[in-house]
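user:
I keep going back and forth on a fold encoding question. Separate attempts, laid side by side, tell us more than any discussion would. Would you put together a sequence-and-structure record for a protein of your own picking? Write it directly below this note and I will take it from there.

assistant:
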Amino acid sequence: MFLLATIIILSYLVGSIPTSIIVTKLAKGIDIRNYGSGNAGGTNVMRVLGWKHGVLVIILDALKGVLAVVVVARLHYGSMPFNNATPFDDFTLVQIIAGISAVIGHIWTVFAGFRGGKGIATALGMLLMITTVDMLIAIGAFIIVVSISRYVSLGSIVGAIVVPLALVIRENIFNVNVPSYNTLLPFVIAVSLLVIFTHRKNVVRLLNGNEHKVSFSKKKK
């Protein structure tokens, strides 16, 4: 139990690294939470400092999810401290636990007063390691939606919805044998709902027609 608790804590701390705050302080000496939407995420960085800094933050945030799943989870050895009743092998289950911990750390970062980002990039990094095909489909949907609408929040929400839908379609319509589908689907739905929940204010702004659009060429000084 001590080892699993250590993995959870380390994954949370990895997810808590406030990459957007670090990048914006190094680049412009500002706290990104005082500008734009006030969110400590890549989208707001893109809006305030331009697409290059925004993309850098998104990549770094995604790497936090990858690091938790690929590196921190490997600290696990031996059997689980509880009966593993899931179809996943012990290591995959530990990866899922580590990934979720990293996403929680990103949203409620201990290093920045528990005011982090919305978890979409870190969840993306985690899910890319666990359900690669479905995440690639979701990324494609995200790119299409953002390219057409210029709403990154809408693209993120659509992407979060597409992941479980892709799983269901591949398994039930195209008859692809997705490993551990019956357990993986509820887990993916839970992560997607968490991401959508963190975008609840964006949903209100989208409905009211005053959500911020992103520009890939304009840079605010």
Notes: The chain has one domain: 2-208. The chain has a mean pLDDT of 91.
